[in-house]
Every structure is written in C-alpha cells, then in structure tokens.
Design goal:
Blueprint lengths: L4 H10 L7 E4 L6 H9 L2 E6 L2 H14 L4 E5 L13 E7 L14 H14 E11 L6 H13 L6 E6 L10 E7 L3
Parallel strand pairs: 1-2, 1-4, 2-3, 4-5
Antiparallel strand pairs: 5-7, 6-7
The protein binds S-adenosylmethionine.
Length: 183
C-alpha cells in the first residue's frame, strides 16, 4: 500500500539513525514519535509544553523499557538550553494533541525558531521530518510559514522534499523533509 506521510516521515529518519546518534522530538504529544526515536537512537530529547504529554510519554517509554530519553517540559524554541551535542534527526508533528486541549497548538514563530536552531545543530547527512497538520484555526498560517521557510533554504546546503496527498478531501496532513548536505 502507498505510504502515508507519517510512515514516510519515520522511514526517512530511520535511514540515518543508529546507536551513536542523538535525536529530537520537537512535539512529544502522546509519545509515538518519541518511542520510535528511542528505539533507534542513542539519546533522545523530547519537548512539549503540556505536563500531560510528559506523563503519557513517560508511561509509554517505561512500558517498552526505554531509558535513553530526556523529557523536557518546555517549548522546542528553547532547545538550545538543553541540547548541546550535534543532532542526527529531528521530528515535528505540528498542530494540537487530539486527546488534549485543542487550543494548545504549535505556532509559526516558535516553530521556525526551533527549526532554525535544529538546522544549525544538525549533522551533515542529518534529517528533519515535519508533519504539517493545518485544518485547525491558525494552521494555515503555520503551514505557509513553514513551507516558505523551507523553500528559502539554500539548495547547496539543504535538500528538501514535500510529500502530500493530492485527492484527499478536507485538509490532510503532509510531510516536509529536510536533509543537511554541507556544514
Ligand atoms: C500534533 S501533537 C504531537 C503528537 C506527537 N508527535 C505524538 O506522537 O503523539 C503537537 C504537540 O505539540 C505541543 N506543542 C505546542 N507548542 C509547543 C512548543 N512550543 N514546543 C513543544 N511542543 C509544543 C502540543 O502540546 C502537542 O502535544
């Protein structure tokens, strides 16, 4: 079956992750992506602004016995206060957490600050996946901000791709992928 954007986002990162690598989950939520990264990377830094996300993710990681994750109750825009080593892979799932307060959403300004800080710290060959959910209020603005930002990345330094359903109704999420080519 054709790959959904979320599956491709994981496959794209799995290709560069190994037992020596550091990964960032910029939007922890229920911890699906955090668990995926914890299974492949040496160390994971996961961020969310909601205590509920940390509780859910902590439980999920314990279920699988993962102890290589730093759960951080802070915005991803502040990641430079926590992540000191080079980053091999990072993932964003934009929007809100379906099981929680739907007014707590990622915002264009902080998302771009975080993305910029991650790209600066990304290893050559490192990759970033961004799942763009934009059906909610404010989602369109964030979608445009992210796509504009990525379109302007210099092509000698970054390879970028967009993977999007074309015949699906409503506002299906799509995937933006970035790979760093040069320091
Ligand atoms: C779509 S959900 C993420 C889903 C998650 N990846 C999972 O596997 O369940 C978006 C998450 O981003 C969080 N968020 C919003 N603003 C944030 C920020 N500035 N920094 C980090 N997380 C943020 C929300 O609290 C929410 O949990």
């Amino acid at each position: 079956m054709i790959k959904r954007p979320l599956h491709l986002s994981h496959d794209f990162l799995a290709e560069v992750l190994d037992a020596d690598s550091l990964a960032v989950d910029a939007t922890m939520g229920n911890g699906n992506d955090t668990t995926f990264l914890a299974n492949l990377a040496k160390e994971v830094y996961a961020f969310d602004v909601q205590e509920q996300a940390l509780t859910k993710t902590r439980n999920r990681l314990a279920q699988f016995g993962f102890e290589n994750v730093h759960l951080i109750l802070d915005g991803h825009q502040n990641l430079d206060n926590y992540v000191m080593e080079p980053i091999r892979a990072a993932i964003f799932n934009l929007g809100y957490l379906p099981s929680a307060d739907k007014t707590i959403i990622t915002k264009p300004k902080s998302t771009l600050v975080a993305l910029d800080k991650i790209l600066t710290r990304l290893e050559v060959g490192g990759r970033v996946s961004i799942m763009v959910y934009y059906g909610h209020q404010g989602g369109d603005m964030e979608k445009d901000a992210v796509v504009d930002y990525v379109k302007k990345l210099p092509q000698d330094f970054y390879a970028t791709m967009l993977y999007q359903p074309l015949n699906q109704i409503n506002t299906p999420p799509f995937l933006v992928m970035i790979e760093k080519l040069k320091p």
